[in-house]
Amino acid sequence: MQQNSVKYYPVGNGDQSLITLKDKTTILTDCNIRQGSKDGSDPAMFDVKKDLLQSIQTDGGVPFVDVFILTHGDKDHCRGFRDNFYRGDPTKYADKDRKAGLIRMDEMWFSPMVAVENTNEEETAHQEEAERRIDLHLKNDPQKDLPGNRIRIIGYDPENRDYSALAHLRYVPGSVVTLFNNKQQETFSVFIHSPFKEQLASADPDDKNTASIVFQARFKEYSFSTEFSNLFMFGGDADYIAWDVILQRTVRYENDVKQKALDWDIFLAPHHCSWTFFNESSNKDEVQDSSIEVLRYRRTGGKVIASSKVIIDNDDNPPCYKAKKEYLKHLDSGKDFLNTDTYPKESEPVPIVFVTTANGPVLSPTTVVKTASGAAGGAGAASTIIKQG
Amino acid sequence: MLYSESFQEYSGQLPAVIESAIEETKEHLSIADVRILKYSEISIVIPLSLKVNLPPSGAVGGIDIREEERVLLKINLNEYPHFAPTVHPDRKDFPSSFLPHMYVQSSDDISGAFCLVRNDFNEWFGNARVSDVLGVAEQWLFKAASGMLATDGEEFDPLRLEGYKGYHFYKYDMLAEVVSNNQFYNDVLPFALLVSSVDRSGEDPVWRTLATVTERTIEKFQELIGKFNEGNSGRDISCLFSILVWDEAARVDDQYATALPQNYGELRSYFEENGIEIDEILRLFTSAGFNYLKEVPIVHAIRRSKKMVGYEGEYEILNFIVDVAENRDGLPSDDAVVKFYSHIEPFSKELAHKLTGEIRKSKTLYIGGGSLGSKIMMHDVRSGKSDAGVVDHDKFLQHNLVRHVLFSQHIGKNKAEALIGEADKMYKLDLPSNFKSYPIRVHQVTNDEISRYDDIVDTTASFVVENWLTQGKDLDAVKISRCELADSGRLGLLYAEGESRNPRIDDLINLTYYKAKENAVIRRWRRNDSMAEVMNLNVGLGCSSTTTVLSDDVISLHAAIFSKVLYSQRERTEKDNGGLLYRSIMDDTDIPSMRSEYEYVKPFEVLECGNGSGWQLRMVSGTSDKLLGLCKGRKKIETGGVLVGIANYKTKTIHVFEIVVEPQDSKGTNVSFIRGIKGLPENIDRIKEVTGGVIGYVGEWHTHPMDLESLSGVDTGTIEKLKVINRKVPIPTLAVIVTNTKVLPFVFE
Question: How far is Cα B283 from Cα B289, in angstroms, rounded to an integer?
Fold first, then answer.
């Protein structure tokens, strides 16, 4: 029987994670598919696209994810979107698209607030595709509910948009989502924390990370279970200001108790282990209380994932060495802090995969046991120049 | 406490291949060195530590799996790498009894091994390395800690037995029913009595259990067993009684036995722990005279909390054989040897259905037990058909070995009897099975016998059988199909009759010939066939002839697809589409390839001849409408032409497949029609050529627009002339009169 799993891809300073449910439903959060990872020539650069295609389902030969969530439009969260995801009328998916391995997003989760000021071509492409779908729904087009045309609006509308007619497609902070790509889940749900109605001040004036979609992915053992056996927190790039608001509002509405919405077993360190989770990036050393409070919601054996480059003791931010040290203070041991680009080893990183169990998420072994009688190298050796005597 | 503590360092020289495996182990685990310990004269063990990822709240279910788990890698010095290295827990307190997918311990020196792969481990290792074994062991431990070891959480995984001595065959469902309903032998003690046999002809004895015995039936069975054993004295097979025990309170026990009893003392303790007083049961067994041999099988059913993987019940059944050769007061001594056996489900309809995913329940009579028929029949039998008959008067001869399912031990035997004998053996413990052989010719099979069957499959390629099927009375309730190979095996033909035997088998066969006009594959066959030296129009597979050149694999290819098509035809529930013409086509011009094509055939139009000749006209669907249309189309002017088809004197049937309209030089009036000849002979010759000389002219047709329904005087005169000509072929003379509303055939021999 297939297990629920959550996979964090090694994509340098960026994010890409894939939730796969027992019924094979897939939820992809962000993408960072670098061109260099696609030819397999550098073992230090994991072939993200190949793995993604192997991890998702196909529908009549068309690879698809059930849900694609873009937490926000910074390039390190949507790199490769244009070249790897199918955009446009899903009925016109052609052979050339299949050959190019374009992935159909059956349902998009789109935050109009996040997209209000798009800053790069990948984000623009994402926004255009979202607006194409929104138009179909606004016009009540008969094809609006086809896989590849489905959309959910996360959060509120900015001033220059009015999607009030699509209230039935909207999830606002505080919502618990159990419907994914029109499939009702009984043991899996998502709690939406942000983005909020108002645009917050940012820890980094050049950034719009406060408008990130932040959510908690929750697994129960049985539909009737009252406890969550596995909780994964996806922080996007939200900074300490956003987290402070998340904390306050969740507690105010008692969702910390009623929904366990702040608890976590696995915490994806916001902004690639940046200091902005703890304070402003302009080197304010003291750690905000609210940030500490968020970390205190860690459950037994909880782990922090830094989806970032190798973290070394220097002034880089992100990833920030000082931030790593701060996280470590709240973990049982160094083994509970995992860095995507060094797992299991820096020279050959592979995705960090957790499978859910009744006792919480457990790291899946990285050993791959071959099932075929022989093995052949990929492009790795063939594309490497070697000198022979 | 570790098992490894009791082993000494190994001091001998290791084979290079094992040295290499050890280096690979060190590299895999990133360790500098390992200890090599002597397990036995032929095996070493290597203590290793495997890292296990545990869930944050510890192993699921509170199982004592640790982050660093000590294991032993056991390598056979003589047989590695042909025998895969096994991985065993090193800790003596490893929670084996709570985990599935572990072999039962067969020695006190070492724990049972992890069961790492589903299939044959040595086979798997043939394509794997020792690092793969360790990788799978790591995953095994990870799954054990995560509660994922049982791949299907809804079912209970059975004990993995190691060191079992042989097999005990019985139907699980039969024993499970006895246990579930507490069907004890009597009210005195909680056990059931089983009738079993043991076959010692092989290397290990094979035990079979057939039925349960009650107090009411015990005397009869005792008598039968006594007689059987007396009659088989000195032979390998003996009959006996076995004991079946279970906890009558039906308590659930999900613990895995980590070691099974090796002697009677241990067996007694084992049963005591399971709430069963085996001493009392054995005493009663012996004193009642139920003990016939030196060994007694004792079968133990354990109730699990879930349905067993691979079975339909929640009882796991273990099989012991106790040595009772020496006993005191009806009990063996404590050190009497106890062996355990693996259960094997006997071959049965149910098992075949389960393993094939098909239910072939129709009752089938196979006419012809030759190479093609034997293969099709065995496909059915292996898929669970246990109601079948074979008709064949022929003997199985040496040359049949080249392409028949039977082997050399059957040489000289009747094919039908040999095939049915093999089928019977397959379902030995599956009562009742209804296999029957008919070592006679098909026409000698009585109607009563035929009425037992739902369908007939003819693979004889025989004219005689075709005619018998065509004329056969009381066959209306039977679905008839025929399979044959043509064109040196390049073409397989399957014909399946339609509802109420229309289209009939001869309709379909003859229509196939006619289709040579439009089908290149059939045309090739018909042309090749007409050029062959053996002049037999109805070419199929005359396998009894040593001159037939055709390989076994080609026949198997066609037989397999025929079997599949026949199955789909028999089990089809939707509305009948008519008859079926199915062709499997092999192209062997380059790399051999196969393809298939099929078409449904609408019921033929059947007309009895008007002059009482006993002949029947069978025309492809739509022919009458065409003729009536031609009559109406010419209004008061007569028209006519010839009919293309085939005539069969044996069945008195004329098939019509094509109407040829009046040639250009024909002339019609209100009262007469002169059928011309322009282009007609060439047309007919061409049809004869492409169909291998089989299909051609069969008669005349002309219209009576004034609706005269009988032959005119002119017609009668013409028929007399035609009769002379047609007798030379020979064919009967057919004249079809077409009025505005009727098609009226007249046949004269």
Answer: 10
Structure tokens given for B577: 């589409």
- Which pLDDT tens digit goes with each residue over B55-86? 988 888 788 999 999 999 999 999 898 889 99
DSSP per-residue string spanning B430-486:
SSS-EEEEE-S-GGGS-HHHHTT-SEEEE----HHHHHHHHH-TT-TTSEEEEEEEE
Structure tokens at B519: 């089908």
Q: Which residues on B lie below 8 Å from A358 (Cβ)?
A: 55, 60-61, 147
3-state secondary structure of B91: strand
Radius of gyration of chain B (CA): 37
Please tell me whether the overall predicted TM-score, pTM, comes out greater than 0.95 for this model: no
| ipTM for the predicted complex | 0.76
Which of B364, B580, B388 minimizes the C-alpha distance to B456?
B364
Q: Which residues of A lie inside 8 Å of B (Cβ-Cβ)? A: 1, 3, 265, 299-303, 355, 357-365, 367-370, 372-374
Considering only CA atoms, give the Rg of chain A: 20
Contact B53 A369 (CB under 8 A): no
Structure tokens at A234: 């996806």
Cα A176 versus chain centre, distance: 17
Contact B139 A360 (CB under 8 A): no
d(Cα B738, Cα B631) in Å, to the nearest integer?
7
Which residues on chain A are in Cβ contact (under 8 Å) with B58?
A: 359
CA distances from B622 to A139, B239, B345, B627, B656 (A): 54, 67, 55, 9, 11
**Yes or no, beta carbons of B148 and A370 under 8 Å apart:** no
Of A359, A365, A372, the CB nearest to B57: A359
Nearest to A373 among B61, B127, B142 (CB): B127
- Which of helix, strand or coil describes residue B553? helix
Confidence of residue A19 (pLDDT cuts 50, 70, 90): very high
B57–A363 CB contact, under 8 Å: no
Q: Check CB contact under 8 Å for B59 and A361.
A: no
Nearest alpha-carbon partner for B445 in B437, B435, B457: B437
B659/B254 Cα distance (integer angstroms) = 78
The DSSP bridge partners found for residue A306 are A339
Confidence band (pLDDT; 50, 70, 90) for B535? Answer: very low
Exposed / middle / buried, residue A24 (Cβ in 10 Å: 0-12, 13-18, 19+): exposed
Compute the distance between CA of residue B21 and CA of residue B37 in angstroms, rounded to an integer: 15
What Å distances lie between residue B362 and B391, B453, B569, B680, CA to CA?
17, 8, 11, 49
Q: Which residue of chain A is at minimal alpha-carbon distance from B52?
A: A365
Q: Which two tokens stand for residue B131?
A: 């690092």
- Chain centroid offset of residue A102 CA: 19
The encoded tokens of residue B688 equal 């004869």
Q: Residue B118 has what DSSP assignment?
A: S
Residues of chain B contacting residue A265, judged by C-beta atoms under 8 Å apart: 56
Distance CA(B385)–CA(A19), nearest Å, equals 47
Q: Which residues of A touch B61 (CB under 8 A)?
A: 358
Q: Identify whether the C-beta of residue B418 lies closer than 8 Å to the C-beta of residue B406.
A: yes
For B56, which of A301, A355, A374 is closest by C-beta distance? A301
Is the CB of B53 less than 8 angstroms away from the CB of A368?
no
Cβ–Cβ under 8 Å, residues A203 and A239: yes
Q: Is pLDDT of A10 > 60?
A: yes
Which residues lie closer than 8 Å to B299 by C-beta, 6 or more apart? B168, B170, B175, B194, B209, B242, B243, B244, B245, B317, B318, B319, B320
What's the pLDDT score for residue B105?
74
A343: closest CA of chain B, how far (Å) = 14
